[in-house]
Amino acid sequence: MGLNNAAFKSRLARHGSVSRLALALPFVALLLSACQSEQDTVVSTEIDAAQSNTSTIQTPVADSTETGTMLLWGDLHLHSNLSFDAFSFGTRMLSPDDAFSFAQGQAVQSNSGLTAKLERPLDFLMVSDHAEYMGALRELYKGNQSLLNAPFAKRWRQYLDAGNPNAIVNEFRDDIEGTLEFDNVIPPEFEASIWAEVNAAAERHNKPGEFTAFIGYEWTSMITGRNLHRNVIMRDGPDITLQHKPFSSIDGNDPEMLWDHLQKYALETGGQLMAIPHNGNLSDGLMFAESRINGEPFTAEYARKRLQWEPIYEVTQVKGDSESHPLLSPEDPFADFENWDKANIAMQPRDPATRKTSLAHEYARPVLKIGLRIEQELGSNPFQFGMIGSTDSHTALSTADSDNFYGKFLDSEPSINRLSNKMGGELWVNRKLTASGYVAVWSKKNTREDIFDALQRKEVYASTGPRIAVRFFGGWNFEEALLDDPDFAAKAYLAGVPMGGNLPAPAKTGAAPVFLVSASKDPIGANLDRIQIIKGWLAKDGSVREKVYDVAWSDNREKDPSSGQLQPLPSTVNLKAASYDNSVGEIAFATLWTDPDFDSSRSAFYYVRVLQIKTPRWTTYDAVRYAAELPTDLPAEIQERAYTSPIWYTPGE
User: DSSP letters along 98-148, please?
Assistant: First the structure.
């Protein structure tokens, strides 16, 4: 973490939570003492006795160092000057080396000349530059002769000399969309040199046990403007990855073609890798459509392959949050969070007649529900994914903190202009960007192999930015005494399954699953409002349903008798100062919760959503920083959050 107790106390004191701090300090010290790990703590809080096995928790719950996993934070989606769009929009100087240095806490001069630095370093990073024309635009400007020997590069150079760079952009876009009427052949030796640069940069910064630098890239398919992008993350080092040529959407724009390539790579090299979809919210329903790209129906083999190669989904990032949507979850008051739902990635407006259907095949919660139905039909669930966050920043700067947000491109780096200008001068307004997100991983060690394995088993979760520590286990016989046990996590691993796992069949008829959840606030951030468990299940009539359960909350609040909803906490946000205080909320929660509506004959999934108290949105920090007017088309304050990977139950499994 890089923080001592004094720093933690100082930061919390500025937010005004003295009484809670006094209660929690012994446990906070334990949290901060863990090397590269954030441990779970708990303070007194009221729990709904009808829904939880505990009413008031007053004892500490902390991980033992013997549990075998530590909490690591990172970003698996970041672009440098090797990406065509990043370079064309102003990221000219910052390379993969700069990206890795910044992620490790070093100060870097941003593309706009500012001194940028993370308040806390990350534990791991992947620079995922676009495979399509990787490095070509940068080297075109440099006059790299190994590239300029190619006919397309000579033509592009002429466009530049004529002052017509838009001709290059149009050609690039048409090639990705598959509408270019001729082939642009990139010299193999040039491609090999750029891929070697990617590998060398990651290898220079990879420090097992201290910082992990992954090798990977982005596959950037967008069929008729509908986003199908995936990041490819590789478990191995250059001795294996250099045997591989990145597979671009120009090589094949169907995800099944990408999976075939991944399979070929794995068989030929013995290496391991996976693809991570993102921005389903800009796919107009294509990302998780219920038929294959070629129009054919799903098969059990298709479902198996998709689950094999795409075990996780990037659910939150700079282009919006994709956990849930108010049109699909109207009874969830927190579903309307940073939704980008007006158009596809080519900014083509949605068809109002198909809008609801499209959204249901983009956002994580409805897609997880659809997966249950498909599993009943095919015997395999193609949408049994875990959830992560990442930034998708194209500045080489991995920032997801609202008060230290460096945007997506040069034109959305900190300045008064980004409250009114547009991305690239003509795309989305920059103030709509979301300061999100990060990947949280429960890993055995800070190495490529161990983090990759945690991603593979889905023991991971998404955060919109705050480093909230969350544990989530499911089982059949967890007991209340576990909450008082300093080795609760080790024993929960033995008696149940962690996030991302599958519950085994119950040992006795009539049993209901019991879930252990603990969450502690970001040590230098806002207090927590509540913990929720979101359940989706397959009903007897074949429909898929959902319910949100509040399982732990702060400030002794009561539920509204008519709506069943908790009373909202009062906001402590001061809009004029872009500040908040921790006079409400809690430092941490822990509870056991038993599903009161369980039916052992029906498939289900459960995941945790942890909500912070309200804090200023990044645009509010900017308005104060630059003495500008607050945007009226966006919320001034938000509730940041974390989403865990689900735990699934399948009858008879």
Answer: HHHHHHTT--EE-TTS-EE--SS--SEEEE--BSTTTTHHHHHHHT-HHHH
Cα 617 to Cα 391: distance, rounded to the nearest angstrom: 16
Q: Is 537 helix (H, G, I), strand (E, B) or coil?
A: strand
> Does 643 score more than 70 pLDDT?
yes
Inter-residue contact 359 to 308 (CB < 8 Å): no
- 347 phi/psi in degrees, rounded to 5: 65, 25
Taking the C-alpha atoms of residue 86 and residue 84, their distance in angstroms, rounded to an integer, is: 6
Q: Look at residues 168, 128, 162 and name the one whose alpha carbon lies nearest to residue 147.
A: 168
| H helix or E strand, kind and range, residue 202 | helix 188-205
In angstroms, the CA 175 to CA 642 distance is 37
CB-CB contact of 48 with 551 (8 Å): yes
**Element (H or E) spanning 494, and its range?**
helix 488-495
The helices-and-strands tally (H runs, E runs) of the chain is 17, 26
CA distance 236 to 239: 8
Q: Which residues contact 132 (CB under 8 A, 6 or more apart)?
A: 84, 172, 175, 176, 220, 248, 249, 250
24, pLDDT greater than 50: no
Asked whether 232 and 265 are in contact (CB, 8 A), the reply is no
Phi and psi for 307 in degrees, rounded to 5?
-65, -35
Dihedral sign of CA atoms 594, 56, 71, 120 in order = positive
Q: Which residues contact 107 (CB under 8 A, 6 or more apart)?
A: 115, 116, 117
Torsion sign (Cα): 97, 387, 410, 427: positive
pLDDT band at residue 67, thresholds of 50, 70 and 90? low
d(Cα 333, Cα 530) in Å, to the nearest integer? Answer: 13
Query: Given a cut of 90, is residue 588 above it in pLDDT?
Result: yes
Summarised one tens digit per residue, pLDDT across range 428-486 is 999 999 999 999 999 999 999 999 999 999 999 999 999 999 999 999 999 999 998 98
Buried-exposed string 316-341: b where 16+ CB fall within 10 A, e elsewhere: bbbbbbbbbbbbbbeebebbbbbbbb
Closest CA to 451 of 216, 609, 646: 216
Paired strand residues for 637 = 616
Three-state secondary structure of 353-409: HHHHHHHCCCCHHHHHHHHHHHHHHHCCCCCCCEEEECCCECCCCCCCCHHHCCCCC
What is this structure's pTM? 0.90
Compute the 3-state secondary structure of the chain and give helix, strand, coil in percent, each to the nearest 5: 30, 25, 50
Range 328-337, long-range pairs (CB < 8 A, 24+ positions): 328/356, 328/359, 328/360, 328/363, 328/365, 328/366, 329/365, 329/366, 329/546, 329/548, 331/548, 332/548, 333/565, 334/532, 334/609, 334/611, 334/639, 334/641, 337/464, 337/638, 337/639, 337/641
